[in-house]
């Protein structure tokens, strides 16, 4: 008991943020490990473009993660943040181990699905826990650490893919093995994390209300009937879904596009993607984490979103030469560090009440990843039949939509505690409900 208390005291603050963020490294890394070796697996197992689309659709990049988030979000709110982040990595380790030793398409697909579910279950709890345990004046910095880890994962994984390229498919298996090892280390460190204080306070309030006969509305009913929730859902789904229809698809298929459209080798494609993610790491750290708590977040979001649109204009309409590819990589990589995912992780933790913060995230993540799953099935077929330019125009359109929604609806939450934001957005509703209950009782 004493050792447990000692461990908990030492895994707080930035240490806790790093411990949780390690999962983002392996989760993003698993997407990239699959993406960087997709052509190798296709050659080894002999599946067609539909099989490529199916792997992408059911992966940690799409439907697998969607299902996991839908399960993990409600469990996180009901049983606490600590329970989920203590066990989701065990499921993840089973999935990546299965992929690492796959010898058939069904085996590869099952491992991909298990990994995806584990990734999805871990995302809502990660962002929720970090935001809840962060100081109000440094929340963007702490949430940005998770985005930083998410960016470092692909950067290193693509670099490893280049290093092990001479080994062929064995190299890919080794990359998944390295993710397995890091997951085990992260799981061990997490044992010392305490439960979220704000969740414990909310749980105590809910238990007291229940003891006093106060019956609250169902979570799903509140999510769609309360005006603050509807506004938050429209903003967050608007920026994250449409951005991810492009970013999620390219996260999984970009090496495939480089190789099949641009004529690059597997090694060149992976090296280019590693270069891209390096810029994401730099802008996440030096811009989002350093000034995200100081300057207008709407301005920062707008800059990142506009850069993303320009990047895809270049990639779609210019010949896929090295100058074009380098320009795209610098623009998109830099934009991603201050883009929709970083702001989604921040705003989605700020704009919903503690009582169902993770549930809301899980539901939205499910919708977003399901959208990516459908697009992942269609994208390879569209590129094969209608050319890459058509696919590029569609993905550009997605980015323009997310830009407009973000510019029009970005909230002003900078410098406020989560409790202050909740009271500001929901305080009058809570008071009205309590007054009604008192009158009826």
UniProtKB/TrEMBL annotation:
- Membrane topology recorded in Swiss-Prot or TrEMBL: Multi-pass membrane protein
Would the keyword Transmembrane be found if you checked this record's keyword annotation?
A: yes
InterPro entries associated with the record: MFS_dom, MFS_sugar_transport-like, MFS_trans_sf, Sugar_transporter_CS
| Stretches that traverse the bilayer | 50-71, 83-101, 107-131, 143-164, 170-189, 233-258, 270-288, 300-319, 325-347, 363-382, 388-410
The family database entries (Gene3D superfamilies) matched by this protein are listed as: MFS general substrate transporter like domains (1.20.1250.20)
Chain ranges of the Major facilitator superfamily (MFS) profile domain: 16-414
The protein's predominant localisation is membrane
Query: Which top-level group of life is the source organism from?
Result: Bacteria
Assigned keywords, A-Z? Membrane, Sugar transport, Transmembrane, Transmembrane helix, Transport
Keyword Magnesium assigned: no
Query: What CDD domains does its record include?
Result: MFS_SV2_like
User: According to its UniProt record, where is this protein located?
Assistant: Cell membrane
Q: What is this protein called?
A: Sugar transporter
Please report the organism this UniProt entry assigns to the protein: Lederbergia ruris
């Amino acid at each position: 008991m004493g050792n447990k208390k000692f461990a908990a005291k030492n895994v707080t603050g930035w240490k806790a943020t790093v411990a949780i963020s390690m999962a983002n490294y392996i989760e993003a890394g698993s997407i990239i490990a699959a993406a960087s070796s997709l052509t190798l697996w296709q050659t080894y197992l002999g599946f067609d473009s539909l099989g490529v689309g199916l792997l992408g659709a059911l992966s940690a990049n799409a439907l697998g993660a969607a299902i996991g988030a839908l399960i993990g979000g409600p469990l996180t709110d009901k049983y606490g943040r600590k329970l989920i982040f203590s066990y989701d990595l065990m499921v993840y380790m089973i999935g990546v181990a299965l992929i690492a030793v796959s010898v058939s398409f069904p085996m590869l697909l099952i491992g991909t699905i298990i990994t995806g579910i584990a990734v999805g279950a871990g995302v809502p709890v990660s962002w929720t826990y970090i935001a809840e345990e962060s100081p109000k004046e440094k929340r963007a910095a702490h949430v940005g650490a998770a985005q930083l880890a998410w960016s470092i994962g692909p950067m290193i994984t693509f670099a490893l893919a280049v290093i092990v390229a001479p080994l062929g498919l064995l190299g890919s298996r080794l990359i998944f093995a390295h993710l397995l090892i890091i997951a085990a280390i992260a799981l061990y460190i997490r044992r010392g994390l305490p439960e979220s204080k704000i969740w414990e306070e909310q749980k105590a309030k809910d238990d007291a209300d229940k003891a006093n006969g106060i019956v609250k509305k169902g979570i799903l009913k509140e999510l769609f009937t309360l005006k603050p929730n509807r506004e938050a859902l429209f903003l967050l789904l608007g920026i994250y879904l449409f951005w991810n229809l492009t970013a999620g698809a390219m996260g999984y298929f970009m090496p495939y596009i480089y190789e099949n459209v641009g004529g690059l080798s597997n090694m060149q494609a992976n090296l280019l993607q590693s270069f891209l993610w390096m810029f994401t790491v730099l802008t996440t750290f030096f811009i989002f984490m350093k000034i995200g708590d100081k300057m207008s977040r709407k301005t920062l979001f707008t800059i990142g979103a506009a850069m993303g649109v320009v990047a895809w204009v270049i990639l779609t309409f210019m010949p896929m030469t090295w100058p074009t590819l380098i320009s795209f990589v610098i623009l998109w990589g830099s934009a991603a560090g201050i883009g929709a995912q970083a702001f989604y992780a921040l705003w989605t933790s700020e704009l919903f009440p503690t009582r169902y913060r993770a549930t809301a995230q899980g539901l939205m993540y499910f919708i977003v990843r399901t959208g990516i799953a459908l697009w992942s099935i269609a994208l390879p077929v569209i590129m094969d039949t209608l050319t890459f330019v058509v696919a590029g125009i569609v993905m550009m359109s997605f980015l323009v939509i997310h830009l407009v929604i973000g510019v029009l609806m970005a909230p002003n939450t900078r410098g406020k505690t989560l409790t202050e934001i909740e009271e500001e957005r929901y305080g009058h509703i809570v008071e009205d409900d309590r007054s009604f209950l008192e009158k009826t009782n």
